[in-house]
Amino acid sequence: MRDAGGLAIPGVGGLWRLLRPIRGRLIIACVIGTIGAAASIVPFIAVAQLAQVLLASGAGATAAVWQWGWIAVGALLLRLLCVFVAGGITHFADTRFQLIVRRRMAARLGKVPLGWFTARTSGTVKKSVSDDVLHMHHLVAHTALEIVDGVVVPVVTLAYLFSINGAMSLFVMLPLLVGIGLYGAQLAKVRPRMADYSTAMGEISGTAVEFVQGIGVVKTFGQTGRAYRRFLDATARFMDLMSGVMRSTLRSAALAEVVLAPLTSLVVITAAGAVLSGAGWIPPVDVIPFVLLGLGVTAPLMALFFSATATTQAAEASERVLALLATDTLPESDAPRVPADATIALERVRFSYDGQYAALDGIDLRLEPGTTTALVGRSGSGKTTIAKLIPRFWDPDSGRITLGGVDLRDIASSELHRHVTFVFQDVQLLSTSVTENIRLAKPTATSAEVEAAARAAQIHDRILELPRGYDSVVGDDALFSGGEAQRISIARAFLADPPILVLDEATAFADPESEALIQDALSALAIGRTLLVIAHRLSTIQGADQIAVVDRGCIAERGTHDELLARAGTYATLWANHERSRSWHPEIRPSAESARKVNR
Ligand SMILES: Nc1ncnc2c1ncn2[C@@H]1O[C@H](COP(=O)(O)OP(=O)(O)OP(=O)(O)O)[C@@H](O)[C@H]1O
């Protein structure tokens, strides 16, 4: 389907389905809009009739004058009423539509695999859920009524005019047809550039965000000019693109505006009326309706053309909304089973992020209830990927993971999350109170339970230092460091009290004190649970029941610390490196200048 501006509306079938909850209202609005559009022509017809009556009978035809006068006023009021009611219906329908679509999106996002989010920035998701739904407003609230006006007004007008005189009507159509042709040509030039337009806009916002977010590191390395240049280059490319589009369309756009202007219609119709009435093809008095109505034929089309950009943007936004709503959800079993115990077993698990390179290539691993298993290995070896398959961030491409003897795919996700909790380093805190942030793990938890969890996670004292204690709002009067945020997530895990815990050992954020607190909290959390830990410092997992060395997506070695050292393999090498790094301290030599100062 094409919109009246000549631009294809993408995915119109999907859009039609998306509009289902408000389709009835839109159809009613269009029917009312059609009545209103037809009524908008009546005052012109009445005035034309009036002119004909007055010219034929002079001032004597008072009754007819009043009759046409009332018809004109009545039609005008009807038009206003229809515009008001139809516009009201589409706008209320749009409010409801936005609510429904946002709810559907939220419901969908709740079912997509957790891994889907790691591949997308929160900005992209926010754009679809918030901005794109908002951009669809034009499509829902305006476009349908604009199309109704753009079709009904010219069709009814021309039907009326043809009933008076066919030859004159063709002259009325002339500017309309030429204008449509010119605009069509213009839009055909613009349309292929719309994708470039979106890319260029994306580049501008991307480089702006990059510049602002990375300002710290950019300044540290003295690269402000370089990052700023990338933003400037993006804006320059956008300007080049827009200039190119404008250059290629300026002539046809200007010509179309001249052709569709009411003055042009007036000149063409008056000239044609003079010639045809001179030749006796039409009585001079019959030219009046053409002059009056001919001027209004092009107006609704002009309105449609002017809103073509908003309509196209709305159509593109609807495509993104539809794509998000079509995102694959995590398959849920129709007959879910309940795991027998807290044993986790990975059997010949293969997994690839891109369908080509195998991040995991035949992993066999068994986590017995109540034991600790540590994953160690070089960066990029696949430790995090193994850990994230257990709470079903993704499903394996082949092989299977079982919990208590049941394939994870056969366990209801609520049941799985009751059994498995994870504490990763990229902790997400919500903009709500500290209590609610912790309570996320167990909405029914009492304040005493929340506090007990916070104490166990070694974050209680820090919370009490906040202006409103547990009622302080994250991001408002509760600002947490990375290590503190991780302890909040540990408090959540205490509250959830799952039999299985997957955790990423803290490294990046923590200062020594915070790190010690995190380690204490994690040790307490681990007691009595099946624990899988991604170890970054081997000293913390020496006592693990089982250490699995991951290498290029495979388990290269497995055993206790002592067993693996005795094997003198990869683990022994990693351990030797670890020991060396522990004894390494940066040697800080005073510069000659500072040495002089000190000695002075
Ligand atoms: N979201 C992703 N999309 C595509 N590839 C990924 C993704 N996450 C990880 N990878 C790739 O999968 C492989 C395993 O990564 P993984 O994060 O599991 O390693 P890791 O051992 O945890 O590394 P590190 O110790 O540095 O965290 C790497 O080659 C990595 O580049």
Automatic annotation (TrEMBL):
GO terms for molecular function: ABC-type transporter activity; ATP binding; ATP hydrolysis activity. Pfam families: ABC_membrane, ABC_tran. One of its GO terms (cellular component) is plasma membrane. It is a multi-pass membrane protein. Residues 344-577 form the ABC transporter domain. It is found in: Cell inner membrane. SUPFAM superfamilies: ABC transporter transmembrane region, P-loop containing nucleoside triphosphate hydrolases. It comes from the Bacteria. The chain crosses the membrane at residues 26-48, 68-93, 144-162, 168-185, 254-282, 288-310. Keywords: ATP-binding, Cell inner membrane, Cell membrane, Membrane, Nucleotide-binding, Transmembrane, Transmembrane helix, Transport. Residues 27-313 form the ABC transmembrane type-1 domain. Signal peptide: none annotated. Belongs to the ABC transporter superfamily. Siderophore-Fe(3+) uptake transporter (SIUT) (TC 3.A.1.21) family. PANTHER family: ATP-BINDING CASSETTE SUB-FAMILY B, ATP-BINDING CASSETTE SUB-FAMILY B MEMBER 6. This is ABC transporter. It comes from Streptomyces shenzhenensis.
